[in-house]
Amino acid sequence: MQVIRRIDELRAAIRKARAGNSALRVGFVPTMGYLHEGHASLLRAAREQCDVVVLSIFVNPLQFGPNEDLSRYPRDEQRDLALAEKEQADIVFLPGVDEMYPSPTKTVVSVSGVTERLCGASRPGHFDGVATVVMKLFNMVQPDAAFFGQKDAQQVAVIEQMAADLNMPVQIVPCPIVREQDGLAMSSRNVYLEPEQRQQALVLSASLKMAERLVAEARGQMDAGELHKAILEQIRQSPMADVDYIEIVAYPALQPVTEIREGMSILIALAVKFGKTRLIDNTIIRL
Ligand code: AMP
Question: Over the stretch 1-12, which tens digit does the pLDDT of each residue have?
Fold first, then answer.
């Protein structure tokens, strides 16, 4: 496994891997590090589908708002490298901020239509930061396929839209959400949670499960407002939960729905704060 911190060295390593083999498939897994089983599942999918697996670890300042957790975002390079090695990554790209942004970027990739709601509404500028860094990383790695978790369902929609609109020669591969045994979606931010918050955070996955059950029982006809109310009521049973949003939208267009009907795909997405820690979770229901 090669550990690379510079863009020119990354390009050289990929050029060398591709030399004389035009059919070689490069798979790419972009992350912000502090790796867990969710990230490992992306690396495994890339390992299965590609010949060369590139993992990037970069906490991207551009996607954090001024009052967010950039400075305290968890980091552990040694542990991350051990996980990458175990999952048989070929190249780990670990650029510093100066390498990625030697001067403030004057070019920003901004995807409209799928970014106005959900996390885009609560975190202004977040998806510009995400799309810009992913575009930069795609230009450096030039992957054939890139692997993203459905944990960040809106992020997948944004990257798919960007890749399609800009004719980027990369296949975007969405991968399922990996959860702890008790249902909590894995996240690098879970480490922030106090034990009591960690316990109450189970309300996210529990309320999504309940929503799935209600939709199934309604047999393809349900008022989205009713469903929203049921989810909100369940989350309110946890006194530490501070709801940022509960959204029921068509998937992948991410536009609001009022009536849930047979034949639709819907995304139910939640963002809930426990103290300073903001957690997200979601489920996609194909009726
Ligand atoms: P992050 O390091 O949080 O920016 O995440 C990097 C990638 O891992 C993104 O594509 C995430 O969607 C994905 N990811 C994070 N948590 C999970 C999870 N619990 N299950 C599946 N994928 C995940």
Answer: 999 999 999 999
118 lines ligand 1 (CB under 6 A): no
Is 15 in the same domain as 47?
yes
Tell me the Cα Rg of the chain.
19
* CB distance 283 to ligand 1 below 6 Å: no
Note the helical H segments in the chain. Answer: 7-18, 37-49, 77-86, 97-100, 118-122, 126-141, 153-165, 195-200, 202-217, 224-236
Residue with tokens 């068509």: 250
Ligand 1 pocket test target in 35, 42, 155, 186 with most atoms within 8 Å of CB: 42
Domain CATH for 226: 3.30.1300.10
Active site residue 126: no
Please tell me whether residues 126 and 168 are part of one structural domain: yes
Question: Predicted confidence band at 200 (pLDDT cuts at 50, 70, 90)?
Answer: very high
pTM exceeding the 0.70 threshold for the entire prediction: yes
Residue 178 CB less than 6 A away from ligand 1: yes
Q: How far is the CA of 70 from the centre of ligand 1 (A)?
A: 17
**Residue whose CA lies nearest to ligand 1 atom number 22:** 149
Residue whose Cα lies nearest atom 11 of ligand 1: it is: 149
